[in-house]
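Hi F.,

I've been meaning to write this up properly since the lab meeting, where we talked about keeping a consistent format for the predictions we share between groups. The idea is simple: the sequence comes first, exactly as it goes in, then the structure tokens exactly as they come out, then a line or two of notes. No screenshots and no reformatting. I'm using this chain as the first example so we have something concrete to point to.
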Amino acid sequence: MDFAAADWVESKGDELHRVDVREDWEYDGIGHLPEAVNVPFDSYRADAHAADGGEGEAGMLPGAERFAEVMGAAGISRDDGLVAYDDTHGVFAARLLVTCELYGHDPDHLHLLDGDYSSWVRDYPTSQETVDPDPATYEARFDPDGPLVQADVVEAALDDPDAVVVDTREGWEYDEAHLPGAVRLDWQELVDGDTRGLRPTSELRDLLEERGIDPEGRVVLYCNTARRISHTYVALRQLGYADLAFYEGSLTEWEEEGRPLESNERAE
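Output, unedited:
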């Protein structure tokens, strides 16, 4: 799983499925990458299907059956290569890729556009032609031995000197309440405002070193509902972090279970 440069994506042509995770009105009305299919963000989140009575394996996961339907309808099988994008620096698209991995998709086949739609249109063609893909079979199977961890594992990591728990939310959210001892790393700090993609590798490594996020150690990520950690997860994978844990329940579940929190006092 990695960030893919726009020129590489363009060179691959139809070897890669292009997946636009924006809302359908954006896909249809604003335009999209040529041959991209539309898989809106809400279609692979559990809360969008509450009326169906289905529940995912954890947090906001949609459940293997529902995810298989969504991806199959988009013409994608689990063996296919795909690149996902949005128009928000990749944070929504990253969530799709992490969900794919959790349901058994080979991470080596998963790519996040380095940038977003607004960066793509500066140099590459777009289309407003709706793509109607041929249905495929997507065999989604949740991998319990994957990167997703439960709250007890996170709590143990807070006391582990060889692990760091990382809060990827904004500063004001962290100040209001965060897991005790968690390090703050707003996911947006990894984004270059000009390119709309990842900051240069040297800058990222300096930032992570400053925060004590060691590539040789264990890193546990959380936010509120596991959307923002998806972008950070892909970024750290890109940088070679091998021991990454993904707390799907995040702060929402942590609070519901009455686990300890701490806050920072603000100066008046």
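Notes:
The chain has two domains: 2-120, 148-256.
The radius of gyration is 18 Å.

If this format works for you, I'll send the rest the same way.

G.
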